[in-house]
Design a protein that fits this description.
Largest sheet: 10 strands, mixed
Helix content: 25-40%
Distance between the termini: 57 Å
Number of strands: 23
Structural class: alpha/beta
Radius of gyration: 33 Å
Strand order of the largest sheet: 13-12-18-11-19-20-10-21-22-23
Number of helices: 20
Oligomer: single chain
Length: 584
């Protein structure tokens, strides 16, 4: 069928076209260079008037396809089209269990393409494509195929967490139980008027220092010790023990004593002390507390009358009374256990943090703390506060168990978080908080990677960015998961139309890619730079793809392949507006 080989290089061969043959629709088709027992596989890259340009992909060794070619075919090799059994050897996974149907090859008469589940889902994945390229349809179809009844594996214990920026995937998975009654879908929503889903709620006490820093928009390293102190105090105050009450009195007393021993005027001291009691007081220690003198009793506020010399008339009595609340042993006190608390309790803890000795006399630190105070109060009085309320105490392990539980002993395999009703800043923070929780949970499992979690981030360019997290808290949770999560069974799956805005560290750790049609030259160039082992030819292929068709390559694929996905059933709600229908 082919003429002689006229050119051989390290990467490609040029083959003459026989004049009696017509070569239509051969671009991206595969050929075999055959001589003696050697068979090299190539892909047709270009056709001009008389020459076919073929790029080497790999070779068959002992009947098994191996990517890459060490010894190039000779100029005398016979060239022919690939046969059916050879094609299956390069587009099908090796024999064994754990394979699933993926899609069809539009090049080879819709030949079915299967993939090994382990090779695809035990690694991080990226799914890129323009709006309208079929990206959301492809994601929905990919997950629907996992739960297809014809698969070797029944994924009852799987855990897919979808962070859905537009509420697209609810419709695609809501009826997954029809495939198998053991399959369940669970839906969390940020829309308080959505009665079908569960309201998204995160127990505030499960947030660590880093989470609170992100939630409160901290920007300075000096704010982290303030948040750390606040977190310690709120956990102490959440206790109902006598020591917890004494600790509050101790903090107030220490703050007052630090003021009394300054060089300020008596009136300035009085103003500072009264200011403390406007935000921090207890039933035992407040402005109306009774102070016992020798033969008389006064309210605490009455002890700050200033005499003609400019001193407090009851300075000795005040000092003795305040000193009675100080117990330095309490500085080493740690809460016996973590209890439930809310945003109001966190605000109170921050108020007590503000009167600490180190902050009162440090203008810079006090200013940083006031910034956190304003942001925390704005959060506490906003509608967003409902996302951080929880009815009763629960630990991390049980909370994650509730996320995947459908009640009655049933488990959800797909958990969808609909984030379309909140702004990008809060959505990013919530994604990071959940990702940190999942990372901590999987990392602490006694048997490593025994409970795999798959995080799907729709519109991931909004969340997985080159943030200042690394400078502020020392790491970015998505980058940490990208580098360490795989060994603990925590996998990231990025879905985006703008890969150029995604952290290059995270993209570089992805092992499998599905590239739908992309037009923006910056995105295309970015993928080339982030994936140096992928040739420009592979990335260029996606420019001519139809909707629902992608270029797939990576660890799960022996060679880069063009794959067409079936239309998902049911479909995600990601189609364009039907203008004609609405105008009628």
């Amino acid at each position: 069928m082919f003429g002689r080989i006229v050119y051989i290089s390290d990467n490609e061969a040029h083959i003459e076209i026989n004049s009696e043959n017509k070569f239509d629709n051969l671009i991206n088709m595969h050929v075999i260079f055959e001589e003696q027992s050697k068979k090299v596989v190539g892909e047709i890259q270009d056709i001009d008037h008389t020459i076919l340009k073929v790029k080497y992909l790999g070779e068959f060794i002992n009947g098994k396809f191996v990517g890459g070619v060490i010894q190039k075919p000779s100029i005398h090799a016979n060239v022919r089209m690939i046969r059916e059994e050879e094609l299956e050897g390069i587009i099908e996974p090796d024999e064994g269990t754990g394979n699933m149907f993926l899609g069809y090859s539009p090049l080879y008469n819709s030949h079915k393409i299967n993939v090994n589940i382990n090779e695809l889902f035990s690694n991080h994945m990226a799914i890129f494509g323009n709006t309208g390229s079929g990206k959301s349809y492809g994601v929905a179809r990919l997950l629907q195929n996992i739960f297809d009844s014809s698969n070797d594996i029944v994924p009852i214990k799987s855990n897919f967490f979808i962070f859905d920026a537009y509420g697209e995937y609810h419709n695609a998975f809501r009826e997954i139980g029809k495939i198998n009654p053991n399959f369940n879908f669970k839906y969390y929503t940020t829309n308080k008027n959505d009665t079908e889903g569960f309201c998204l709620r995160i127990p505030l006490w499960l947030l660590e220092i880093d989470d609170l820093a992100l939630l409160l928009g901290a920007t300075e390293h000096s704010q982290l010790p303030i948040i750390e102190r606040m977190l310690k105090l709120v956990r102490i105050f959440a206790e109902t023990t006598e020591n917890a009450r004494k600790y509050q009195n101790h903090l107030i007393a220490k703050a007052i004593m630090s003021i009394l021993y300054t060089n300020q005027t008596a009136s300035a001291k009085r103003n500072d002390i009264f200011s403390i009691f406007t935000t921090c007081s207890t039933p035992e220690f407040n402005m109306e507390s009774l102070v016992q003198g020798v033969g008389y009793v006064r309210k605490f506020r009455e002890c700050f009358i200033i005499d003609k010399e400019g001193n407090f008339t009851e300075s000795i009595l005040v000092t003795q009374y305040v000193a009675g609340f100080i117990d330095d042993e309490l500085e080493r006190y740690e809460p016996e256990q973590i209890n439930a608390y809310d945003l109001n309790a966190l605000e109170k803890a921050l108020e007590f943090t503000l009167i600490s000795e180190g902050l009162l006399r440090n203008e810079k630190s006090y200013g940083d703390a006031i910034t956190l105070k304003v942001r925390l109060h704005s959060l506490a009085i906003s509608d967003v506060a409902r996302f951080f309320t929880y009815p009763s105490y629960i630990n991390l392990e049980n909370y994650i168990a509730t996320l995947v539980s459908c009640g009655n002993g049933k488990k959800a395999q797909i958990i969808n978080f609909n984030l379309e009703d909140i702004d990008d800043t809060l959505a990013k923070t919530i994604c990071k908080i959940y990702s940190r929780m999942f990372f901590d949970f999987t990392k602490k499992l006694k048997m490593r990677a025994s409970i795999p979690f798959h995080i799907f981030l729709e519109e991931s360019h909004r969340y997985v960015q080159n943030d200042s997290d690394r400078n502020l808290i020392g790491y970015n949770i998505f980058e940490r998961i990208a580098k360490e999560g795989r060994k603990y069974g925590l996998m990231l799956n990025l879905i985006s139309q703008r890969p150029v805005e995604i952290s290059e560290t995270v993209i570089s750790q992805c092992s499998n890619f599905f590239i739908f049609k992309m037009n923006h030259p910056r995105d295309i160039e970015y993928i080339k730079q982030m994936l140096p082992n992928i040739s420009a030819d592979i990335v260029e292929k996606q420019k001519s793809l139809q909707p629902g068709t992608c270029v797939a390559f990576g660890k799960a694929f022996k060679i880069p392949m063009i794959i067409h996905f079936d239309k998902p059933n049911p479909e995600p709600q990601s189609s364009n507006c039907n203008v004609i229908a609405t105008w009628k």
